[in-house]
Amino acid sequence: MPDIMINEMLHVRRYSTERRGMTGLRIALLILVCVICGTANSGFVLAQHKTVTVDWKAELAKAKAGIAKNPKSAFWHNQAGVAYNALGDFESAVKELKLASSLEPSDPINDYELDAFYKGKGLYSEEREVVLDALEKDPDNPLGHFEFASILEKEKRWADSLREYQWAKRLVANVKGPVYSDPLGKVYAVDGIRDAVDRAIDRVAKLKGSAQHQE
What we know:
By secondary structure, this protein is mainly alpha-helical. It has one domain (5-214): Tetratricopeptide repeat domain (Serine Threonine Protein Phosphatase 5, Tetratricopeptide repeat), CATH 1.25.40.10. 61% of the residues lie in helices and 12% in strands. It has 10 helices and 5 strands. A 3-stranded antiparallel β-sheet has the order 1-2-3. The chain has a two-stranded antiparallel sheet with strand order 4-5. A hairpin with a 5-residue loop joins strand 4 and strand 5 (187-189).
């Protein structure tokens, strides 16, 4: 089954005082791509939307400076995590994003970024945990249900996966325009989900039917 990859923007809007002083590059660092792969072994990952030359060592230095000024800034710990991951320091990246999440416990964006990091490492149990955490914080995000459906599909839990894909479809149908806005004002692109969810539902329904037939 060929991979179906759909690139969509995931815009992360931060409304803290740090955001007011961000440069264009720093804002660009918060504009990510949601790559949705329509296979049982793929979900979504976060990456740069276009080719941008980023000095990640310099970005990490900025994040560390921000943390030194405000150790409880979830924003700067998030940015440190993104930079560490780009530099190949996975453990430090996870540590920083977990800290950012603890500092903003109602904000699911760090969970979704952790989801992407874990997915890249094939750490599916950790991926499952953070997606469920994100859905607990905001159960109306169609991206979370699509991601959870993908995880259940990998687990071959066809009925549960089908239910989550159908739920994602219902939620995205209620979204006007190309983005879903969460209760905190963060926005997530959903056109990719719109394009992929029917195929996902059809795929999992066939797998479910085949499994039942074999029984």
